Amino acid sequence: MEKVLVTGGAGFLGSHLCDRLVADGCDVLCVDNFFTGAKSNIAHLLSNPYFELMRHDVSFPLYVEIGKIYNLACPASPVHYQHDPVQTTKTSVHGAINMLGLAKRTNATILQASTSEVYGDPEVHPQTEDYWGRVNPIGPRSCYDEGKRCAETLFFDYHRQHQLRIKVVRIFNTYGPRMHPNDGRVVSNFIVQALRGEDITIYGNGEQTRSFCYVDDLIEAMVRMMGSPDELTGPINIGNPNEVTMLELAETVLSLTGSKSTLAYKPLPADDPRQRRPDISLAKSKLVWQPTVSLEDGLRETIAYFRRTLLG
Ligand SMILES: NC(=O)c1ccc[n+]([C@@H]2O[C@H](COP(=O)([O-])OP(=O)(O)OC[C@H]3O[C@@H](n4cnc5c(N)ncnc54)[C@H](O)[C@@H]3O)[C@@H](O)[C@H]2O)c1
Fold first, then answer.
1. Closest C-alpha to ligand 1, atom 42
2. Which of 91, 135, 153, 164 could in theory staple to 158 by disulfide, Cβ–Cβ 3.0 to 4.6 A?
3. Is the dihedral of CA 27, 63, 74, 95 positive or negative?
C-alpha cells in the first residue's frame, strides 16, 4: 500500500484529503499540532487500520518512512495566522524545509498547498501562474503571504538543486463542511450569522468579488496533481473562476437558510484585495480538471454541516 503523509491533516482541507486517500486505499499518516485542526474532523477515521494520527509540529524535523507527502500544515484564515504571526512564518518556512528534507531522504513526491495570497493585491485579473504578484512584505498579512512565497521558493530550489519531485498548487478560496465557525472567512461568517439570526457583516460596500471552490472539487484537483507526470511541477492554480460579489453571496445564504438576518456594513480591513479570481486554464489542460459543484449545491452542504454542529 502506498504510504502517504498529510500534514495539517486534522484541518478543514486536510481531513477531506485524508478521507479521500483512505477511500482510495492508501496507508495514511496524518500529522497535526491541532493549532486550528480538530480531532472531531478525523475521529471517524481513527478506527481504520490504514489511518494513523500523529501529534507533531512541522516546524520541527520529522523522521518517518513515506512515499508521498501533501504539505498542508499552516493556519489559513487571517484571524488564525495573525494570532501568532512569527509561528505562522515558522510553520510555512521551517515546515517546508523539514518536509522537503523528509522527501529528499525518503525519495518521496511532495505537494505544497500554496495559496492565491502569493498574488497579493493583484494588478491583473484573472491571475495566471506567471503573474509574480503584488505583496506587501511588512503588513499584518505578510507572515502568511510571504511565508507561502518563501515555501514555494524552497520547493523550486529543492527541485533544481536536489532533483526532488515537487508539485505546487495555488489554492483559491475554498469552502465546505468542517470549516471553522469563527475563522472570519466570509462563507462561514455569513452562514453562522444567518443561522444564529445575527446581522450579516459586509465589509466595504459589498461590491468586491471573490470566487469560491467547493472542497470536493479542490481535493479532486490535488489528487490529480499528485498523480500527474513528474515534469508537471506547477505552480498551478486551483479554484473556481465563477465570481460573486459579497452582496450576492449574502443574499444566496439568506435564501438557502431562510434566515431573517439583516446586512450590517463595516470598513474594509487592511490589505484586503478588491477582486480575486483564478485563471484555471493550466489545470484544465494539464489535469483535465474543472470545478463541477455549483455554489448553491456547495452552500447547501455547508449550511447542513453548520446546522448540525452549531444548532445540534
Ligand atoms: N481553505 C482555503 O481556502 C485555502 C486557500 C489557500 C490555501 N490554503 C492552504 O491549505 C492548507 C490547509 O488549509 P485549511 O483551510 O484546511 O486550514 P486549517 O487551519 O483548517 O488547516 C491547517 C491545519 O494545519 C495544522 N497546523 C498548523 N500549524 C501546524 C504546525 N506547525 N504543525 C502541524 N500542523 C499544523 C492545523 O492544526 C490545521 O489542522 C493551508 O496550508 C492553507 O494555507 C487553504
1. 76
2. 164
3. negative
The number of beta carbons lying within 10 Å of the beta carbon of residue 94 is 18
Ligand 1 atom nearest to CA at 88? 28
Contact between 113 and 140 (Cβ < 8 Å):
no
Query: How many angstroms separate the alpha carbon of residue 120 from the centre of ligand 1?
Result: 18
Tell me the catalytic residues.
144
The tens digit of pLDDT for each residue in 53-94 reads 999 999 999 999 999 999 999 999 999 999 999 999 999 999
259: CA distance to ligand 1 center in Å? 30
pLDDT tens digits along 233-269: 999 999 999 999 999 999 999 999 999 999 999 998 7
Name the residue among 293, 92, 151 with its Cα closest to residue 211: 293
C-alpha cell of residue 277: 479570481
Closest CA to 246 of 279, 289, 201, 299: 201
- With contact defined as beta carbons under 8 Å apart, do 11 and 31 qualify? no
